[in-house]
Amino acid sequence: MSNIKLIIEERPTHIGKFMVGRLLPFKEKRMVGPFIFIDHMGPAKMNESENIDVPPHPHIGLSTLTYLFEGSIMHRDSLGVEMEIKPGAVNWMTAGKGIVHSERTPEYLRGSDKVLHGLQIWVALPKEYEKDEPSFVHVEESEIPEWKKDGVNFKLIAGEVMGKKSPVPVYSPLYLLELKTISGAKLSIGNELFGESAMYILEGSVSSEGNTFGTKQILVAKDATLCEFEMGPNTSIYIFGGMPFDEERFIYWNFVASDKDTIERAKEDWKEQRFPKIKGEKDFVPLPSR
Questions:
Q1: What is the pLDDT of residue 289?
Q2: pTM for this structure?
Q3: What pLDDT, on a 0 to 100 scale, did the predictor assign at position 122?
Q4: CA–CA separation, 107 vs 48, rounded Å?
Q5: Are 236 and 248 in contact (CB under 8 A)?
Q6: Per residue, what are the HEC states of the chain?
Q7: What is the pLDDT of residues 203-241, one digit of tens each?
Q8: pLDDT tens digit string along 95-154?
Q9: Beta partners for 241?
């Protein structure tokens, strides 16, 4: 990606007791297009006594996208949805005015060794959709557009770009692309992108303008139209971006909004447990103090 604006290293954080790498937001860049939060989970090896158990927690003003490379997560939410997400599929949950969900290891895996590895992504909603009713869509791996070009395997996980359109029902112009190569490849795709653009190197290396970047680095371009780079052998990258919003977005914990009053109301509603409940779930994640 030529004309690099920022180079960011993955920073460790936690989901429950498991380590994840925080990619976005960071101090120098709060959003890339409508993308406001990206975590790289794992790879985490778990034995028969270790499981993912994220109790019910709320969201507003965003869509969450879960995309796994390995493992499985059982999603349950206040709409009554119970859906297992497996590698290559997409769980797309739109919070709108408010939703609650939990994420746990499926029952059939809880007594065995397992691995969890994937991306969790938040996409902020345009202002006119922030107060909409919540919704949930599951897209199977077989439905994701996939093609090959110049020695690279492409997948369009979400959005519309390069003449392709993902069935994931996004709310603003954006793209989330997976690129993989075994032998390496040189690409110039900037004229097919738009808005703001960034790249995450999951595996392998990327070279641009005489510089080489490695695994777990995120590169933010100054201009999406100047996206030229070379992928090394056995490299997997994710390019994401789109049109930024006119208004600033505020974020507190799991809440995203274009005004602070909406976030304050959501904080109070969660403290008082006025959000909708998930059938069969009794515990919940308390509102953090900061």
A1: 84
A2: 0.89
A3: 96
A4: 11
A5: no
A6: CCCEEEEEECEEEEECCEEEEEEECECCECCECCEEEEEEEEEEEECCCCCCEEEEEEEECEEEEEEEEECCEEEEECCCCEEEECCCCEEEEECCCCEEEEEECCHHHCCCCEEEEEEEEEEECCHHHCCCCCEEEEECHHHCCEEEECCEEEEEEEEEECCEECCCCCCCCEEEEEEEECCCEEEECHHHCCCEEEEEEEECCEEECCEEECCCEEEEECCHHHCEEEECCCEEEEEEEECCCCCCCEEECCEEECCHHHHHHHHHHHHCCCCCCCCCCCCCCCCCCC
A7: 999 998 888 989 888 888 877 666 789 999 999 999 999
A8: 999 999 999 999 999 999 999 999 999 999 999 999 999 999 999 999 999 999 989 999
A9: 175, 197
- What is the token pair recorded at 276? 């909708």
Residue 81, by phi and psi: left (phi above 0), alpha (psi -120 to 50) or beta? beta
Cα separation, 83 vs 172, in Å, equals: 25
Query: How far is the C-alpha of 31 from the C-alpha of 241, rounded, in Å?
Result: 9
pLDDT reported for residue 264? 97
Contact 56, 102 (CB under 8 A): yes
